[in-house]
Amino acid sequence: MKKCLLLFLALATTLSLAACKGEKDPKVLYDEASKKTSELASMDVISVINMQMTQGEDTTDIKMDLDMKMADINTEKMRYLAQGTTSFMDQNLDILMYYENGYYYMDSMGQKVKYAMDLDAIMKQVKQSTEGASVDSTYLKDITAKKDGANQVLTFNVDAEKMDAYVQDMMAQLGTNMDGVTYSIKEASGEATVNKDGYFTSSKIKMSLEMNAQGETIAMVMDTDSTYNNPGQTVEVTAPDLEGYTEIDASALGTQ
Q1: In angstroms, rounded to a whole number, what is the distance separating the alpha carbons of residues 104 and 45?
Q2: Is residue 186 assigned to a domain?
Q3: What is the arrangement of strands in the sheet containing 140-148, beginning at the earlier edge strand?
Q4: Residue 186: which of 212, 152, 220 has the closest Cα?
Q5: 171 inside domain
Q6: Residue 47 pLDDT greater than 80, yes or no
Q7: Residue 256 counted as domain residue
Q8: What is the pLDDT of residues 19-43, one digit of tens each?
Q9: Angle CA(83)–CA(252)–CA(211) in degrees, nearest 5?
Q10: Structural domain of residue 210, as residue ranges?
Q11: What is the pTM of this model?
Q12: CATH code at position 179
């Protein structure tokens, strides 16, 4: 009996010490990394989206890559530069977007336009672009963590119902929302890597969804892969040539 009591006390002590040392709950780790990353004053993010759209027997593959650099985030001095390419049906469409001093510049499909945009509006767009691969933790379930050297790799499933509204908003930010078009998430899962300093260094989301429009249904599989380069380090943003842009009313684009 005495021996059993000693073993029990040893076990209790071991568990107590483990609890004191304690690994963080994966959801807490995710929330802390989301908050810390979102508070960065500058960011360098590369996002790649691979999408497959299927309607009947027709399948179309689309790839979008976007290299985004931001400095003085959420201040009047903010500068945002995004350059990327959309590839589909053997065509490549290059796009350049830039924000500075209350103006948003866009160069795409041979057209160069600029329009006034306030800080709140650009921040909403930046947030959508940089956090498109990391969703609110209230949408997550079955989240687990494992060590990878000095990093923590978080793996999770996503509540499909809660993601419906999120995707609708994301499509709106991409300018693809239209009256009568709805999206239905079938399943979603993801992975995020948190470095030793508590920042996201990469995040991945895979979604299977359906788009319904005018009685037609299009099945979509979307993989979003984002890399956060050197989080916490200063990012230099160099303005592109801003000559030759035509100023327009943003309301004509439905962006504001």
Answers
A1: 19
A2: yes
A3: 140-148, 151-158, 181-194, 200-213, 216-228, 43-55, 58-71, 79-88, 91-100, 103-108, 111-116, 246-247
A4: 220
A5: yes
A6: yes
A7: no
A8: 334 467 999 999 999 999 989 999 9
A9: 70
A10: 25-239
A11: 0.79
A12: 2.50.20.20
